[in-house]
Amino acid sequence: MPSVLSYPGVYIEEIPSGVRTITGVATSITAFIGRALRGEVDRAIRVQSFAEYSRLFGGLSRSSTMSYAVSHFFQHGGRDALIVRVFNGDADTDTATITLATTSGNLVLEAASPGTWGNRLRARVDHLTRDTSDTLLFNLTVEELDRAGGTTVVASEPFRNVSVNTGSARFVDTVLKAQSALVRVRTSAPADESPVDGTANATTTATDGGAITDTQIAGDRDARTGLYALEAADLFNLLCIPPPSFDADLVAATWATAAAYCQERRAMLIIDAPAAWTANASTAIATAEAGVNGLRATIGNDDAINAAAYFPRLRMPDPLSENRLADFAPCGAVAGIIARTDGQRGVWKAPAGLAASFSGVQGFTYTMTDAQNGVLNPVGLNCLRSFPVTGHLLWGARTLAGADALASEWKYLPVRRLALYIEESLFRGTQWVVFEPNDSPLWAQIRLNIGAFMQDLFRQGAFQGSSPRDAYFVKCDAETTTQNDIDRGVVNILVGFAPLKPAEFVVIKIQQMAGQIEA
Question: Which segments does the entry list as coiled coil (predicted)?
Answer without folding.
Answer: none
